[in-house]
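Deliverable D4.2, example record:
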Amino acid sequence: SIYWERVLQSVWQDHQGLGAVATQAHASEIPRLLYMQVLDIFFPTHFLRWAYFFTMLIIGPLGIYYLLEHIFKGKNNYKYAAFIGGLFYLLNLGTLQTFFAPLEMFATLYGFIGWLFLTALLFLKNPSPKTFLLYTAVTFFSTPMSHTPTLWFVNFMMLSVFSLMFFLLEKGINKQSRIKRVVALIVTTLILNSYWLL
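Output generated by the structure prediction step:
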C-alpha cells in the first residue's frame, strides 16, 4: 500500500528527504504492482519480489524461443535453432549479471524483450485486432522496465530501428501499407507509455 501511494503520486516523492521531484518514472511500475497484487494472494510477502524475478527468468528465454521460431519458420531444423537461441539467452553471462544483483527494471526488460519484438513483428506482418491486442498487452506489462527512463529510450530506439528495417526489407507488402503499419506501431507504443512519459 505504501508503494502504491508512491507510484500513484509519482511526480513528487514525499519520502525522499523533505520531499523531491521524482528522478525516476515510478508510475511505470503500475503493471508490475498489479501482477504483485495477484501474487500476494498465493505467496507470502517476503517471496513476492523473488517470484517476480523467477517469472522474468522463465518468460525471457521463452520469448526469445518463439521470436526465433517465427523468424526461422520454414527453414530446416528451425525449432532446434530457436531452442539453441533461447538456451543461449538463458545461459550467458549477461543473464547471470542481470539476476545476480537483481533490479526489477532490468529483469523486466530481460523477460519481455523477446515478446515485444515478436508481437511487434506479428503486428507489422499481419495487422489485426488480435495482433494489436497482443502487442498492446505485452507493451503495457513491459513498462516497468521504464523505472529508469533511459532503459526505455534505448528499447524504443531499438524498436524504431527494427520497424525501419521492416519497412526497408519487407517486399511482400506495398510501400503505403508498410508506412501505415510502422507509424501505427510507433504511435501505439508512445500512447501506451504516455501515462508515465508525460
